Amino acid sequence: MSAPATAGRRDATATRLAHLLLTRLTLAVAGGLTSVIVARALGPGDRGAYWVIVTVATTAAAMGNLSVEKSQTTLWTREGDRPAIAANALWLGLAVGAAAAGVSFLVAVLLLGAAADRSALVWGLAAVPVMMAVVYVNNVHVLRARTGVVNRGSLAGAALQCLALGALGVPGWLTVEGVVIVWTLSAVVNLLLLLPSLPVSRPRERRLVARTLSCGLRHHPGYVCHFLLLRLDILILNAMSTPAAVGIYSMAVTPAELLRAMTGTVVQVALPRQMESSRETAAAYTARTIRITVVLATASVVLFCLAGPFLVVVAAGPAFAECVVPMLVLAPGVAAAASAAPAAAYLLRLDLPVRTSLMYSAALLVNLALNALLIPRTGVVGCALASTIAYTALASAQVGWFARSAGVPLRRLVPGAAEVREIARRVHGLLRAG
Length: 434
Known about the structure:
The protein is an all-alpha fold. It has one domain (about 15-434). It is built from 13 helices and no strands. Helix 1 packs across helix 5, helix 7 packs parallel to helix 11 and helix 9 (about 280-315) runs antiparallel to helix 10 (about 325-345). The radius of gyration is 21 Å and the shape is globular.
């Protein structure tokens, strides 16, 4: 590739990264406002009930999505399959999501019984097929380096959610069911804005469905374990403690989730290069991406620890003052997980789903054991500590596996002045452009 072409590609990547960072920042602000509105309107107890329903719905989506987005990424290396992957994304997401929602409703009713708010639960599970379609379609856009489309859909959904909750919250009309309905409608808006730009050049193709599902199912046990690692603590805490404790923990988790989303922008922009390049080029690019992500995660955690607790308590009110300590305990684990995300993406190239599943299941077992041990003794703080330990252990395993398989010394993953200067230059250019 010529020098001008390489420079042009770098500029295009930097531009996508800048736009995605701005989008993530806007989404973080919108997510923070949404959390504050819900916390003020519902209080710890009802916020906990709402969070349980959202956790049930997102768990249903994760358990039932069959890791199709993983198989999309793996199959994307075969250029001839790309049109069919794009053609299948929407209808496959809706079909698989509808089946997952139906099964999850029956399971939730059996497990939660009379404690379940059936109407709110139905609204929450109605989001499952929509969310699944969003994941599949988003992944196609990301693999085609069309992150602008993804940005617009995410921003529109977040704007609707924030504005609707604000409009209902000011006069005091918000209920648990109302918050869930708004959450579901925001997912619908997100999906609708993704469809006009979906690069479908032919009708849906069933010939690739069996291969897509087969490939996805091989990765699915690991994906499920990873998702449960990130979400099961809410359900464990709900079973072992009170809805108010869940509400406190959900507020502590929210800034950490936003931090993960911010650093995830680098991973999203890097994914096409990681999948389309030769393995040697992808390894070098992944190492560079890890260095940049470490800098971003470290800076984010420092700012988060300095300002986050004060801002959250002031915004959400004194009823949520207990979230400060678990929030700070969670921060290092989230930073470790965010820093290792580029390595996790690279490992998809190796197509070793059994080994991946064992790695994620080990981290999940560590989290479960620590939660069972710590929650009865230290409550919400113990739940946060269990997650941080499990996240850090998983991140270490991912980075170590990447370094061994790619032949990259660990010292090459430590950021230096060059990465700091590059990020500072990009941020400066972004601010000047703004």
